[in-house]
Amino acid sequence: MHPRLAADLARLPDLLDVTRRQATAFLDGLAERPVVQAVRAPEPVPLPASGAGLQAALQDFATRWEPGLSAGAGPRYLGFVTGGVTPAALAGDWLTAAVDQNPTSSLDAAGQQVEEEAIGWLRDLFGLSAGHQGTFVSGATMSNTVGLAIAREWLGEQLGVSPAEDGVGALGTVRVLSGSPHSSVVKGLSVLGLGRTALVPVPTLPDREAVDPAALERALREADGPCVVVANAGTVNTVDFDDLRAIAALRDRYGFWLHVDAAFGAFAALSPAHAHLVDGLDLADSLCVDLHKWLNVPYDSAVQFTRRRDLQARVFQNAAAYLGPLGDTPDPVHLTPENSRCLRALAAWFTLRAYGREGYREIVERCVACAHTLGEAVGALDGLRLLAPVRLSVVCFTLADAPTTERLAALAGRLADEVFLTPTVYAGVPALRAAFSNWRTTEEDTRLIIRALERAVRELPEPSSR
């Protein structure tokens, strides 16, 4: 064994304690740390020939790289619908690396069994029936892509072909209908060979991001052959929800594959006041839920549910003698593009076991309350304009005067020490969005954000008269 490896192995308990202290110091400083750092990247250094050991690497990281890290795990990082990491999820993630399991094969089944229990808990959390079977993937993009891959195979089933065997060309023209699809859906269509132009935009309800059911029915009548409908349970800009029951009723008449993107909107099911927004979620043929958002587990983690695991296995099956047969209950190696991955479920299992339904209901309802508080403040603040009602956990707003991309970027820059907001465009208007999903965020953080916003708006230069 290399001397450095042997020395680190001998000192492993002490070195892990040093790592713990360094991680704890970082987390303890989140509240005071600038939310987004404005520091230059350190100069690159060459790969060391022999290395200096773990403790030296920890010191080098703390000196060169840690100062530039954002407070992404903290309570005022409100961009990208980014959750943090609960204490239990952090413990689960550390153990994930320590036990280093690949849960994709039942030949070594313990990790897979943990995942099955976690999937069952998540199914219960979102009010799904046993007809939905799930598997862990890396994020919403992969969850949507896997769901669309299953939909692609369903389209082939309707036409008497198998895209998995015969190629996507066997399908002919494919139509995917949606009102306000997430960008990952478009990426998934490209990856799957269906093409970005397969997406057919369907009109939304007035001043909404929710699809107009009447317009969707017209599009379905015009469709030539079987098609896919991508519904939204929580859009990115305004957390709008399609009427899932109305869409499912259309499926009964027109016959299509219903994929629901509920990346973070599925968590509305935990709040009695908002559960009606996801009424009909269980009617989906495939379903995307992102876990490194409101479940507050580390990147990367999501779950993909479907009622047609047989089609899923037909797409992703992997034929190799050392993997064993496909069987009636396919291993995860036959269900996603990944042949190998970490025990991704462990962080989710730990945090669900530690805090349960009531713990997550409290997180969701607190985040929603914070979003409403900020939305009310934005609506009352001279110089800002709320672009949509706060339906759940996102506040979408712009400048009342000259809302250009440049002026909004300047406003976001003035806020960067206190809060991180991401830019967007809503109804053709450049805007900013604040997405509440972090378990640490409190009303006190929201009041701090409001004060920072008031100050930044006052100090923002007047628009040019040119």
Write structural notes for this entry.
Strands 1-7-6-5-4-2-3 form a 7-stranded mixed beta sheet, sandwiched between helices. A 4-stranded antiparallel beta sheet has the order 8-9-11-10. Helix 2 runs parallel beside helix 3, helix 6 packs across helix 8 and helix 9 runs parallel beside helix 10. Helix 8 links the parallel strand 2 and strand 3. The protein has 2 domains: 261 residues, Type I PLP-dependent aspartate aminotransferase-like (Major domain) (Aspartate Aminotransferase, domain 2), CATH 3.40.640; 103 residues, Aspartate Aminotransferase, domain 1 (Alpha-Beta Complex). The protein contains 14 helices and 11 strands. It is globular and about 60 Å long. The protein is α/β, with parallel strands linked by helices. The mean pLDDT is 96.
In brief:
Keywords: Aminotransferase, Decarboxylase, Lyase, Pyridoxal phosphate, Transferase. With 466 residues, the protein is an alpha/beta fold.
Write the layout of secondary structure elements.
Layout: H1 3-10, H2 12-28, H3 54-64, H4 87-99, H5 110-125, E1 133-137, H6 140-159, H7 163-166, E2 176-178, H8 183-191, E3 199-201, H9 213-222, E4 228-232, H10 244-254, E5 257-261, E6 286-290, E7 302-306, H11 309-316, H12 345-380, E8 384-386, E9 394-399, H13 405-415, E10 422-426, E11 429-435, H14 443-459
N-to-C order of helices and strands: HHHHHEHHEHEHEHEEEHHEEHEEH
| Helix count, DSSP H or I runs of 4 or more residues | 14
Any idea how many domains? 2
The first-level CATH class name of the largest domain: Alpha Beta
Helix content: 40-55%
CATH domain topology of the largest domain: Aspartate Aminotransferase, domain 2
